[in-house]
Design goal:
ten-stranded mixed beta sheet, 592 residues, globular, eight-stranded mixed beta sheet, FAD/NAD(P)-binding domain, 15 helices, alpha/beta, single chain, Rossmann fold
Length: 592
């Protein structure tokens, strides 16, 4: 059996810099942009070559696909043009493949050549995922950038999109032939919308032939600068109008439903959100504080890459829309084996050094200002967040239309979904329905899920100030600490009442780790039910035509829900997915 591959950072982009400050890829011995004027070349070859902005004037959603993100200059130029010419309600998706992404430092240095783009460059660099493998989605108002940090063929084979215009901008075919292979051209054709265009700087014979064989009508055009010619190509077929979604309906107002609501409201679509409890009394999303941190895996698997992408995506979302209570989480190893695992994770650099660092036992004690009973070191995540799930959920869904009702049945009738309350009354009808009602999901759908009861507690103690995981978790809250959480398996519909024994156990464990004796008399507590699956992976899938499910998030809902919600909204809207096809298959539905 082949040993599993470790999840590591992408290969580095090894650059040398010209006297004029222009980057050159040493491995390919090729330039990132023209010495005759990089921005001018982009506009001539790619923007004009794709008939922009005219091509996007009459579309609600326009999708550009690019091979070779490089310095991001093509994206920035397209974004700048979009800002000058788009109409209200339009959206631009830009999908780009890059096997050797630049670091933030390299990107900043390369783009200093273009001061007119600085406002856009600053926004790009702020969200830049660095050398993290996988698919990364970044939002800039009506512009969405999706980066595929991967080799070109795996990226294209797993891409879920319908693309209107292609920028083929890999290094020259002679120096980087993998970027210009017949398999690549076949993937481009498969992903192209009717009448899709292609623009590129090269007129190499095998490129022209390959695109023609893939179904494109290819023409040579006058080149830019020292290049005599360039190519434009058009795919067969006629543009098919998109069917707009009017009013999606979401069942469940926890973090899953709220994240889906936000995905729609950010696009100018107002969904109906059905939730019986204003304060989310039985949901984990009603907790007053919770940790949003990465789930790290040593193996390179679709879900492992997703976890890192989801974490970075959630960071950006909560920084803009969440209620953040604190930053930085220290995760202590509780065994020698876990400490060794942490060291491997750090060495693999699956997340950049700015997002995690190894700390010794002594360093951890200094950070916590206490004597830790554990003798092992840990990992510090400086960007990990303590947020208010309850308030963040409310903020994400603040622009919805709310209905307060307990849903017990859904059914398909006359081509639409009917949503019925406990009295059998139809309270909503829709073409697009999302089921996200957590612990009550079995009332509606027969899915294979499990339930665990989690109790937390909060109050005052002698030492506080640093969010900590050491078996259980602790985070500063209201001049004290919030501690959690129990993991007791329960049946569907079982009680979420708190009990004093659980609070005493949580306090004792925290006190044993930090050397504190805590009086829990005045401590408050809360219990809620989490939903998990047999394989511990989330469910984010289309169950039937117009019916979508987001569930099984377990204790990682704050981290996973935002990106999964974006993926389901895109599926409903026929927009490019932020998940590759392999990940979508892993998160599909299993019957009960």
């Amino acid at each position: 059996m082949t040993a599993p591959k470790p999840l590591t950072a992408t290969p580095s982009a090894v650059l040398k810099w010209s006297d004029e400050g222009e980057p050159v890829a040493q491995e390919f011995d090729d330039i990132y942009f023209s010495v005759d004027g990089g921005l001018e070349e982009t506009k001539a070859v790619f923007l004009q070559g794709s008939n922009l902005p005219k091509a996007w004037q009459d579309t609600d959603v326009f999708v550009i696909g690019e091979l070779g993100f490089g310095s991001g200059l093509n994206f920035l130029a397209a974004w700048e043009l979009w800002n000058k010419t788009n109409k209200p309600g339009q959206r631009l998706h830009f999908l780009s493949v890059e096997a050797f992404p630049l670091s933030k430092t390299q990107l900043s240095r390369a783009l200093k050549k273009f001061p007119s783009l600085k406002p856009l460059v600053d926004q790009l660099i702020f969200q830049w995922p660095d050398r993290v493998k996988g698919v990364h989605r970044l939002h800039f108002g009506s512009v969405t950038l999706t980066l595929f940090h991967s080799n070109v063929e795996p990226a294209l084979s797993s891409m879920d999109a319908s693309i209107n215009a292609w920028f083929l901008d890999g290094f020259s075919p002679a120096k980087n032939p993998n970027m210009w292979s017949h398999n690549v051209f076949k993937h481009i054709a498969r992903l192209s919308a009717p009448s899709a265009s292609i623009a590129t700087f090269t007129v190499a014979g095998h490129v022209r032939r390959g695109l023609s064989e893939a179904g494109f009508n290819v023409e040579k055009k006058p080149g830019f600068g020292r290049k005599r010619e360039r190519l434009e190509a058009v795919f067969s077929g006629k543009v098919v109008p998109r069917t707009p979604i009017v009013t999606p309906v979401i069942i469940g107002g926890g973090i899953a439903g709220a994240a889906i609501a936000h995905a729609f409201t950010s696009r100018g679509i107002t969904p109906v959100l059905i939730e019986p409890h204003k304060e989310l009394e039985t949901a984990a999303s009603g907790n007053p504080a919770g940790l949003m941190m990465p789930k790290l895996d040593l193996q390179d698997r679709p879900e492992s890459r997703f976890y890192n992408s989801a974490y970075l995506y959630a960071l950006n979302l909560y920084r803009s829309k969440g209620i953040i209570l604190g930053e930085g989480v220290l995760h202590m190893a509780i065994s020698e084996k876990e400490e060794e695992r942490f060291a491997k994770i750090i060495n693999n650099l699956a997340l950049p050094e700015t997002k995690m660092k190894l700390v010794s036992h002594a360093q951890a004690q200094d950070m916590l200002s206490c004597d830790l009973s554990t003798i092992y070191g840990g990992i510090y995540f400086p960007s990990a967040l303590t947020i208010s799930p309850k308030l963040s959920t409310q903020k994400l869904s603040e622009n919805c239309k709310y209905i307060r009702a307990q849903i017990t049945e859904i059914k398909r009738q006359d081509g639409r979904w009917q949503v019925l309350d406990k009295d059998g009354k139809t309270i909503a009808k829709t073409d697009t329905l999302f089921v996200c009602n957590g612990a009550n999901i079995l009332d509606i759908l027969p899915v294979d899920v499990r339930f665990t009861r989690g109790q937390i507690c909060w109050g005052s103690c002698d030492k506080s100030g640093q969010a900590l995981i050491a078996g259980n978790y602790a985070t500063p809250f209201e001049n004290g600490m919030l501690l959690g959480a129990t993991h007791d398996h329960v049946g569907a519909g079982e009680t979420t009442k708190t009990n004093a024994a659980d609070t005493a156990e949580i306090l004792a464990k925290y006190g044993a780790v930090t050397g504190q004796k805590i009086d829990g008399v005045k401590w408050q507590s809360r219990a809620a039910v989490r939903v998990t699956t047999r394989n511990t992976l989330p469910i984010a899938a289309q169950a039937e035509d117009g019916l979508f499910v987001l569930s099984g998030l377990g204790s990682r809902g704050l981290m996973m829900a935002p990106l999964l919600a974006e993926a389901l909204a895109c599926k409903a809207l026929s927009e490019p997915s932020p998940l590759d096809k392999r990940t979508q298959e892993r998160f599909g539905l299993s019957p009960a």
